[in-house]
Amino acid sequence: xxxxxxxxxxxxxxxxxxxxxxxxxxxxxxxxxxxxxxxxxxxxxxxxxxxxxxxxxxxxxxxxxxxxxxxxxxxxxxxxxxxxxxxxxxxxxxxxxxxxxxxxxxxxxxxxxxxxxxxxxxxxxxxxxxxxxxxxxxxxxxxxxxxxxxxxxxxxxxxxxxxxxxxxxxxxxxxxxxxxxxxxxxxxxxxxxxxxxxxxxxxxxxxxxxxxxxxxxxxxxxxxxxxxxxxxxxxxxxxxxxxxxxxxxxxxxxxxxxxxxxxxxxxxxxxxxxxxxxxxxxxxxxxxxxxxxxxxxxxxxxxxxxxxxxxxxxxxxxxxxxxxxxxxxxxxxxxxxxxxxxxxxxxxxxxxxx
Length: 354
What we know:
Blueprint: H1 3-20, H2 29-40, H3 46-58, E1 63-73, E2 80-91, H4 97-109, H5 115-126, H6 131-137, H7 153-165, E3 168-177, E4 183-185, E5 195-206, E6 209-216, E7 222-226, E8 230-239, H8 255-261, E9 270-278, H9 282-289, E10 294-296, E11 302-310, H10 311-320, E12 325-329, H11 331-352
Antiparallel strand pairs: 1-2, 3-4, 3-5, 3-8, 5-6, 6-7, 9-11, 9-12, 10-11
Helix pairs in contact: 1-2, 1-3, 2-3, 4-5, 10-11
């Protein structure tokens, strides 16, 4: 066998271990010899397989195997002597199949990622395991393209990641969808596209979407932007504003606390809110507000909850859970929720009167 071809043996054996082995599917030296013959057109001896596997292990590859002892006659003397047999080889992987499945589920969960890019990512994740995992992945149904998607998303994430790492501001256009189902940039007072300049601090994932936590020039408070609505992002040479000088970020970003206070990623200050709730939505309340919510005045069916939350977000949340929630304080928030519910009811009353 020519020398260049011999050098390929070790790479092909590694490829075989990656494609065909795991803890539940182990390979003998005979198995590897047969695959090399059938799929790579290479004829090798078992001892060659063992030698190359040893070389892979010396290079740092985590390969498990079992070892057994059998008595074989010595070719020279004919006397029986111990021979160590290696078998049941498999490559230990960085990710378990359940972890890879979780990554795939996470990609499918995010509404921002275009369908074509989701398929590509899932295919790459499949490549981290073997053929047995790939056969199971075929049973996972990916959602086809049903919503308009921003194809610049990954570039936006990469640009923001670099800007945050280098403490630099970025500029971009922020968009909203029109009736044509296409993104249209927000306009400035002069009718031209409005260019946003922001100091980016953190990217957060909320309800299946990516948001940017930042400060927008020339304002002093914290802002939130959906990454799938951002286009034509560019880094600048200007250093970002110190987050400690931004209202709401004086003590840095406590991400779990920040997310609990900004349910729908509205900007604005957070205040203490008290509301009376039905106990059967307790799981929902914990899901939305986290474990910092305080409870008091419990009865058989109800309990009072106290949370720190953005008032605009709480207004929307209280309407969403209207039959099960009654805002107690602040009084102005309670009045706003009542007005919202009255307006919603009026919509249906007007419809019924036609």
